[in-house]
Specification:
It contains three helices and three strands; from the N terminus they run H-E-H-E-E-H. It has 87 residues and is an alpha/beta fold.
Length: 87
């Protein structure tokens, strides 16, 4: 598992590390949110599976149709299913 404190660091890290999946909260420190990060990752590395999570109910309308969004609170089984089903 690789961790990054914000979107800028995540993009830089993904450029150096092989990753098959990205899991991020929609709300994150820095100037970019999880949706922005997900769009940047998908554009640059289209094979990386992406799962976002959020505790805010209004975030679903901001997600692209191909984004997997896991609503908080979630159970471990819900997270496992979201990660397994990610595109």
């Amino acid at each position: 598992m690789i961790e990054a404190e914000n979107a800028k660091v995540a993009m830089r890290t993904l450029g150096r590390e092989a990753a098959g999946m990205m899991f991020s909260d929609v709300v994150m420190p820095g100037s970019a949110d999880g949706f922005t990060l997900a769009r940047q990752v998908a554009a640059r590395w289209p094979k990386i599976k992406i799962v976002l999570t959020s505790g805010f109910s209004d975030t679903r309308s901001q997600a692209d149709s191909d984004m997997r969004l896991l609503s908080k609170p979630y159970r471990r089984a819900d997270m496992a299913r979201a990660l397994r089903d990610a595109r």
